[in-house]
Specification:
By secondary structure, this protein is of the alpha/beta class. The chain has one domain: Roll (2,3-Dihydroxybiphenyl 1,2-Dioxygenase, domain 1). Helix content is 17%, strand content 41%. It has 2 helices and 11 strands. The radius of gyration is 16 Å and the shape is globular.
Length: 145
């Protein structure tokens, strides 16, 4: 596998939600994402410099995830999120706690003392989409084996 030499660029992901107002409140207020363009069917958000788009899909199931065991936890699949600097991750974890967000996996350090040690947390948006935010004390461990 070749190592990339390209600078990191923003990703784009579109995901289903069953209530745009709930998505606007969660992503805009709870997570603090700036809102971009929107319509009656979708909303763009700036998630730490990445473009995420909540698309209205009425009747979206809130229990459509599969789980895989990782480090003694049931990790929801699919999920998406961002790798953040450790201080930003800690600030976000505290912000979510203050907002009363229920965690699927509470913020903790995964693989402690091992290769790939990372901070991680999982939670659901109001439509049941799973999100993971992680951080590394040593970002060179991002793809470590």
């Amino acid at each position: 596998m070749q190592e990339t030499t390209l600078p990191l660029t923003p990703f784009h992901i579109a995901f289903p939600v069953d209530d745009l107002n709930a998505a606007r409140s969660f992503y805009g207020t709870t997570l603090g994402c700036a809102e971009g363009r929107s319509s009656s069917q979708w909303i763009d958000f700036d998630l730490f410099g990445h473009q995420i788009v909540a698309h209205l899909k009425p009747g979206t199931s809130k229990d459509n995830t599969h789980h895989n065991a990782v480090d003694g936890h049931d990790v929801p699949v699919p999920h998406f999120g961002v790798v953040l600097p450790m201080e930003t991750w800690e600030t976000l974890a505290e912000r979510l706690r203050r907002a009363g967000v229920e965690f699927v996996i509470e913020p903790y350090i995964r693989f402690k003392g091992e290769v790939g040690e990372q901070a991680t947390m999982f939670f659901l948006d109001p439509a049941g989409n799973a999100l993971e935010f992680k951080a590394f004390a040593d970002i060179s461990q991002l793809f470590a084996k």
